[in-house]
Amino acid sequence: MLIDTHCHLDAAEFDVDRDDIAQQALQQGVAKIVIPAIARDNFDAVIALCQRYKHCAYALGIHPMYVDSAAIDDIPILHAYVKQNNPVAIGEIGLDYFVTKSNAALQTYFFTEQLKIARQFDLPVILHVRHAVDDILKYLRKHQVVGGIAHAFNGSFQQAEQLIALGFKLGFGGAMTYSRALKIRELATRLPLEAIVLETDSPDIPPEWVGVKGRNSPSELPKIAQVLADLRQVNVSQVLDITGANALKALPRLAHLCTPPKVLH
């Protein structure tokens, strides 16, 4: 099964043709799409999209790049949303020291408080990790959750092994398609296929054939899967079967998501 485990279908870049994008993904064989929230302001938007597109599921969380504009009471609000709704995960949450480390304490506060919510509701988490894998691992060991997905993983092989040991799958997408992305391609080849899930991070991280300035889309996922199959020298059907099963294991509530033959217009 082809599953896009990370797609921001609510992004403004899709305002002009969102219905078409959702339909095209289904036509390309993408059976399920996970839409993670990034801030309190878009909780309602991702929920509404998943009510409209029945092959989509949402996660709720506050992204580390948005904590400066977040309020402390966004945490109890998130708690209330999770209690009242049915997210597949808490996410997109984590730490990002690539953009800035000056607000590391604030990032850590929001990350750890959201890990506590995930623990309370026995939900997996969708992690955003940039230049912060060791700190992510430290807090995951302190606030143990049931696992989840490390989105757009770009750490070391040893760090990958530690995340896998904590019950996480690792997301690979457009970055893997660039021939110059030697470290990511090596990880995609060396790691057990049972540890990998596919993603697009649409509209971001476009694959090589789209170009760095192009808009990514969940309909690119079949070609991304083919790249992974080529790197590992296996049949693409094996990649689809195993990464799809991995996604359902990482996000168990996805298994109950019914995929209709077409989206609503």
Describe this structure in words.
The chain has helices at residues 18-27, 43-52, 74-84, 104-120, 133-142, 157-165, 182-190, 221-232, 236-250, and strands at 2-4, 30-36, 56-59, 90-96, 125-130, 148-151, 168-172, 196-198. It has 265 residues and is of the alpha/beta class. The protein has one domain (2-256): Alpha-Beta Barrel (TIM Barrel). The protein has a five-stranded parallel sheet.
Summarize the structure.
The chain contains 9 helices and 8 strands.
Q: Which keywords apply here?
A:
TIM Barrel; 8 strands; 15% strand; 3-stranded parallel sheet; disordered C terminus; single chain; 265 residues; 9 helices; alpha/beta
Topology:
Blueprint (H helix, E strand, L loop, with lengths): L1 E3 L13 H10 L2 E7 L6 H10 L3 E4 L14 H11 L5 E7 L7 H17 L4 E6 L2 H10 L5 E4 L5 H9 L2 E5 L9 H9 L5 E3 L22 H12 L3 H15 L15
Parallel strand pairs: 1-2, 2-3, 4-5, 5-6, 6-7, 7-8
